[in-house]
Amino acid sequence: MEFFCTDEEWLALERRERKRTAAFRIPAVLTPAVFVVLCLLTRTGNARVMHAVLLAVTGMLGGTAVAVYLLALRPVRQERKHLEMLRNGEKTILEGRLKVTGDSFRIPKSVRVRRVLLETGEADERPVMLNVDERWVDRMPQDGSGIRAAAVHSYIAGVETVEPSDGDKMESRKTSRIRSFFRSISLVMPPLVLWIFFTVIFGSFVFYQITDTGPAWKITIFADGVTVGEDQLAARLEERLGDPIRMVRIHPFSYMMFGDEELKTADLYILPDSHVPQYADWLLPGSEGILMYDPASGYTVAGDVFLYTESGEAPEPYRLYLGANAPHLEDGMAGQAAEQLIQMETEKEGNTE
């Protein structure tokens, strides 16, 4: 009798499992390692670029790990588990005429099998229904052959031809490559989409938590208007302010920010005159705004970052205000940040002249 899993095939399966385990572990280990390294390399000036790089690299590495596991490692583990059952289980010997059905199905958390009908020849008995691993259907005798089968539970572990079939030679029973390809796609796509969603949402959240710092070491500037390249301006301010400030964060306007505690406790606000009343509760009482943009005279501070004229409304003055709940009012760092912002623009104009 030919048993489908010989000792040589079992050893080859174990070697294949070890190789695929290694192929899975490489991207699986690299994904969190690269994530942490990229977070450590992130600075205010490169935060946007590093965030995009982080999502792309970890998404690719993690997606590779998911694909390798689903398409390579998990199938070989399921095959090993199935073969262990066939090798070690108590075998029952059955005889009859063979018929392999065309449709296959997957055993939950195991291999894909084909149905096998075994007609015993007794008129009053229904055919015995068995299963055979889909990879082995071409090693089964031709339909109509009289066979002796060794089965563990309902799964065929080996066969022996007792009486060859007298019919024509049948076509190959192998599953078409196209059908196998679409099965693989349908198997791997949902987890990959889930991984991409997880990377973008959870990965971004963790990235900003790791790369952020506490209010005691951060200057927060809220700009009610259109901004571009604000990270570079924030990085220059960080260098000028020095200790204890480790980070300057410039937030452009977003409706999603309303209700955000960081918005209510910003150190500085850059606001058009018409919007000042709606932020009045968050501004330091009695403080006068520092002019940032005057449409009448053309005066502007950091006009390459704060696009005062592209708000969609008629041009109006913008002013810089101290926050009433700013963490850095008492130590004076909020005021220094305002002064440095104005001074940077003055120095830039001096260099231009």
Overall description:
- This protein has helices at residues 7-41, 47-88, 177-211, 230-241, 261-264, 333-352; strands at 2-3, 92-106, 112-119, 128-133, 146-152, 155-163, 218-223, 226-227, 247-252, 268-272, 290-294, 299-300, 306-307, 318-322.
- It is of the alpha+beta class.
- The protein folds into 3 domains: 1-86 and 176-212, no CATH class; 92-163, Beta Barrel (OB fold (Dihydrolipoamide Acetyltransferase, E2P)), CATH 2.40.50; 215-352, D-Maltodextrin-Binding Protein, domain 2 (3-Layer(aba) Sandwich).
- The strands form 3 sheets. A 6-stranded antiparallel beta sheet has the order 1-6-5-2-3-4. Strands 9-7-10-14-11-12 form a 6-stranded mixed beta sheet. A two-stranded antiparallel ribbon has the order 8-13.
Which sheet architecture does the biggest sheet show?
A: 6 strands, antiparallel
How widely separated are the two ends? 96 Å
CATH T-level fold name of the largest domain: D-Maltodextrin-Binding Protein, domain 2
Share in β-strands: 15-25%
Radius of gyration, in angstroms, nearest whole number: 35 Å
Order of helices and strands: EHHEEEEEHEEHEHEEEEEH
What spatial order of strands do you see in the largest sheet? 1-6-5-2-3-4
Number of strands: 14
Number of helices: 6
Shape: rod-shaped
CATH architecture of the largest domain: 3-Layer(aba) Sandwich
Tell me roughly what share of residues is in helical segments.
40-55%
Poorly predicted runs of 5 or more residues:
255-259
Q: Looking at this structure, what is the CATH superfamily of the largest domain?
A: Periplasmic binding protein-like II
Class by SSE composition? alpha+beta
